[in-house]
């Protein structure tokens, strides 16, 4: 996680894939998420198989995350027979 310290306009995100031995697939099946000042997820980008050392994600390629499921309250009454 990187805290930019204030609100900024993001045009792209650059990702650098660290090598592990001969494998370049450390970031395969990963998610990059952009979060607001309240740590709420506002945009996501999903990687599939990754075989690169450096990658640039234009902000237009991010998608909105699905809304959280609704909160449901349930009341249970227990009666003795």
What does this structure look like?
The structure is a single chain. The protein is mostly beta strands and 81 residues long. 0% of the residues lie in helices and 26% in strands. The protein has one domain. The chain has a two-stranded antiparallel ribbon. Strands 2-3 form a two-stranded antiparallel sheet. A hairpin with a 5-residue loop joins β2 (31-35) and β3. It is elongated, with a radius of gyration of 20 Å.
The topology string of helices and strands comes to EEEE
Low-confidence stretches: none
Spatial order of strands in the largest sheet: 1-4
* Tally of alpha and pi helices: 0
Described by strand count, sense and barrel closure, the largest sheet is: 2 strands, antiparallel
Write the layout of secondary structure elements.
Blueprint: E1 12-16, E2 31-35, E3 41-46, E4 54-58
Antiparallel strand pairs: 1-4, 2-3
Brief overview, please?
This protein has 81 residues and is an all-beta fold. Helices cover 0% and strands 26% of the residues. Strands 1-4 form a two-stranded antiparallel ribbon.
Keywords:
81 residues; single chain; two-stranded antiparallel ribbon; mainly beta; 0% helix; 26% strand; 4 strands
